[in-house]
Amino acid sequence: MAKAHGVPAKVDAIKLSEEGAKKVMNAAIGLAVVGVVLGAAGYFTDAHRFAFSYLTGFLWLTTIALGGLFFVIIQHLTKAGWSVAPRRHMEWISGALPACAALFLPIVLFAHDIWHHWMGPEAAHDEILQKKAGYLNPSFFYIRAAIYFAIWIGLALWFAARSAEQDETGNQKLTVKMQNMAPPAVLLFGLSITFAGFDWLMSLDPHWYSTIFGVYVFAGAAVSSLSVLALVNIKLQQEGLLQKVSNVEHRHDIGKLLFGFIVFWAYIGFSQFILIWYANIPEETLFYKHRWEGSWKVVSMTLLIGHFVLPFLVLLSRHAKRHFTVLAGASVWMLVMHYVDLYWLVMPTLDHHGAHFSWIDLAGLLAPVGVGALLIALRATRGHLYPLKDPRLAEAAAVENL
Q1: What is the secondary structure of 51-106 as a DSSP string?
Q2: Model's pTM, two decimal places?
Q3: Residue 23 in domain
Q4: Is residue 173 part of a domain?
Q5: Using CA atoms, how far apart are residues 84 and 398, in angstroms rounded to an integer?
Q6: Is 188 exposed, middle or buried (0-12, 13-18, 19+ CB in 10 A)?
Q7: Closest by Cα among 298, 226, 295 to 262
Q8: Do the Cβ atoms of 123 and 267 come closer than 8 Å?
Q9: Which segments cross the bilayer (predicted)?
């Protein structure tokens, strides 16, 4: 049997089988159809609420894809050897970014409903918003969005194309080229996700501000993308497709990263809260006041316990990170909590008196997620399951957690 840098082809499948690829595509197509139909129903039932629900679902998908892009960049930046196979899976996930760009178009139509504070007529009578008009105006807002997507899609496609090219040619200079691209890429990524967080989330309440907010958005992106990665990794391992380049040791490493970023998310969230609480400036504290009124208090406490306390306790042990069921369950839970986090950020703008979950919110989630899942499925079924000729493939197969 042929070998790829010491990894026997008979041990690790190169691609999904025809039957496996068909199942993945059918599931993705089904989800996309259900999402689009449900989304249309939600829009025609209550267009105003659907606008906010759609923004929440769009951000859920986009932050997951951005987390995937960050993972790809950071593995090249650090010249990591353990993550050869997971890096390919994150290339699939970041491949949803072109779909995210297309899915932003409905938001353009909803924009005046969503960001009505500074896009609407009341901004002309607000002294603070008039001073921010040089930044918070529709034309510049859309230009910035176009720049963000150009950066993200350009980086995602560039790294994926070099990786795929290496599969065919085995040219090790491509690894060096990707490593050299990583430093400017991480700078562009950091700036773009920060300003996107300011634009799409923080400006929902244009009087409120937080200098750490971009890092908070990034933390959520990292946690959610690692959760998806863990589920992909577990599924491929359980199907027996990957045994050498992705085994229990790699699952353990992914679990450790997920655990670490759960703690990081809590640290950033607490840092933001404690600084605002201590300063006690009215225009800053209003953000938390709106999320402590009525049933929003329940959502806030759910976020504290569900996004940090419970997963921290569950994933603290070595055994949990290596166990199929525990890690998979924790990953699904964190994806739900990431949605709750975004819901907590977006929906109080619609009604800060209390949280009222509706089927329209589910429609707003499934509409973008179905389309994004279809694009990810196309990448997964047409490409190789891991970088076949990466120079660190043998190193990845030999990784061991002590």
Answers
A1: HHHHHHHHHHHHHHHHHHHHHHHHHHHTT-STTHHHHHHHHHHHTTHHHHHHHTHH
A2: 0.95
A3: yes
A4: yes
A5: 12
A6: middle
A7: 226
A8: no
A9: 24-45, 51-74, 95-115, 141-161, 182-202, 208-236, 257-278, 298-317, 324-345, 357-378
Distance CA 351, CA 349 (A): 6
Do the domain assignments include residue 296? yes
Q: How far apart are the first and last CA of the chain?
A: 32
Please tell me the distance from the alpha carbon of residue 399 to that of residue 245, in angstroms, as a whole number: 9
- Distance (Å, rounded) from C-alpha 167 to C-alpha 222? 27
Give the separation between CA 47 and CA 58, rounded to whole angstroms. Answer: 16
Helix (H, G, I), strand (E, B) or coil at 150: helix
Does the residue 402 lie in any domain? no
Domain with 311, as residue range(s), is 3-120+132-397
Q: Which amino acid is at 55?
A: L
Q: How far apart are CA 158 and CA 181, in angstroms?
A: 10
| Token digits of residue 20 | 């496996």
Q: How far is CA 280 from CA 215, 274, 289, in A?
A: 22, 10, 11
Summarize pLDDT for 139-197 with one digit per residue, the tens.
999 999 999 999 999 999 999 999 999 999 999 999 999 999 999 999 999 999 999 99
**With 70 as the cut, is the pLDDT of residue 11 above it?**
no
Distance CA 289, CA 191 (A): 29
Domain count within the chain: 1
| Residue 402: band (very low, low, confident or very high) from pLDDT cuts 50, 70, 90 | confident
User: φ, ψ for residue 195 (rounded to 5)?
Assistant: -70, -30
